[in-house]
Amino acid sequence: MKQRKKALLLAAASMILAGVLSACSTDKAAPSETGKPAAADAQLSPVTLKIMFPGDPPGNWNEVKTEIENRLSGSLNVKLNVVFIPWSDVLTKRQVALSSAEDYDLIWDNNPTQNIAAGLYEPLDALIDKYGPDIKGTRSPQMMDANKVNGKLFAVPLEVNFIRPWTFVIRKDIREKLGVAPIKSYDELIKFMYTVKEKAPDITPFIPNGTEHIGLKQASMLDPKTNIAPVLSYPGLYTKGNDGKVYNIFDNMDPQIMKNYETNHKLYTDGVMARDALILRNGEFAKGKAAVSTFNDFGVNLSTSTALEKAVPGSSSEAFSLYDPSMKLSSTYKAGNYIAVPVISKNKERAIQFINWLNKQENYDLLAYGIKGKNWEDAGPGLYKPMKDNTYAGIPFAWGWNPKLDRIDASLSEDVIKLNKWQRDPGNFTADILSGFTFDPGPVSNEVAQLGNIGKELYDPIVMGLVEPKEGLAKFKEKAYTNVTKIQAEYQKQLDTFLANRKK
């Protein structure tokens, strides 16, 4: 009898335990008001999130990853399977992964419009409302609203600024060796490049980071009142003057754009710009092979300066920017990076809970700067000091970037710190007329694909100065005009509809 009673008790206990485990196995735990799992949900079942990132893992990544997982073990119970894809392959492999329904839970995307239109990313509004108070709390309403598509958010915007900054980075040691004063203007920068060509022939004067910086962005910065901006990545199309119109360079060439093409051509023909500028990128600067390059930062980022100093002992670097905090610029508040949840993910709730967890200061600091006291030190509100003997070049742009939590390197010069603070305040910019507008390329998808190929063949050489501008533009127009004007017409049509609806 005692044995039978004992067996019944064990059976009952097993049933209760099974019920508890079953309840804990669900991935739909309700969060607390802070976005953390409530006490009853502390026993969340273990989940491994598979995440796709671009580039190579940063140094000490395994140590930082272990610390992230240790912090998560008592709450979200998440492990990380982070797949790093080389920059040269990331676009192709991302599309393969999405189209073949690979089991990713989070994917970095720099331009998610196409994947959103294809229905490959999960709408996130309800998930963020439920699990992401810190995702919303670390981003301005302008940023959250501007990155929606048809009124819905399909990817968390990752950005720390409200413009797309870029900077000329200069070999300071070479400048000083040649007796050149600190660069204060674009004309002085050009003069320095020619001095390098004449007096330091063993180094390439100028290797820009492709067409992005020295094309329409540079044209706009050399005459900010024009407010020139490229239309997405469609060569030949641009906006200006914040007038709600789309222009093409064949029918409406802005004089500042043509002047920029001509300057780049002169730099190339004079041997100042690298002969193989179409292939080389700013990584050459860190190897000590260029006197000037361009980067997506204000100032010199830590990884570049550290790599340069290792490659060329005794070298040093500095930055020169065409931006100035007194400029009255507009912003679309669009992000340059996003983290999205594929519709195929089986861990959507936990993925957003995890991203919310990253948007807390102590966790963001770990993700961005490494282990405090070992890789970095607190240098005051909004600042940090990297430890040069044990640096950690994190990749917050791929999964957490936001202007509220991101810190500025305190070792940067005062003017660079001022620029960084300026660009992170939405109040310093006026809303561009395109703010909140997202173009659907579907109706002209064939033209977009064709233009992309033609642009690489015929437009990029114009921007990089490899061909005489007028001759290059004539050849480009012959092959691209139909595609450019069809995309222009569709873009203008959608923009007009957007603006009309906004006025209602």
Automatic annotation (TrEMBL):
As given in the record, the signal peptide range reads 1-23
Q: Which residues form the DUF3502 domain?
A: 434-500
PROSITE patterns documented for this protein: PROKAR_LIPOPROTEIN (PS51257)
Keywords on this record? Signal
Instruction: Tell me the organism.
Output: Paenibacillus whitsoniae
Name recorded for this polypeptide: Extracellular solute-binding protein
Task: Fetch the Pfam families from UniProt.
Answer: DUF3502, SBP_bac_1
Q: Which PANTHER family match?
A: ABC TRANSPORTER SOLUTE BINDING PROTEIN-SUGAR TRANSPORT (PTHR43649:SF17), ARABINOSE-BINDING PROTEIN-RELATED (PTHR43649)
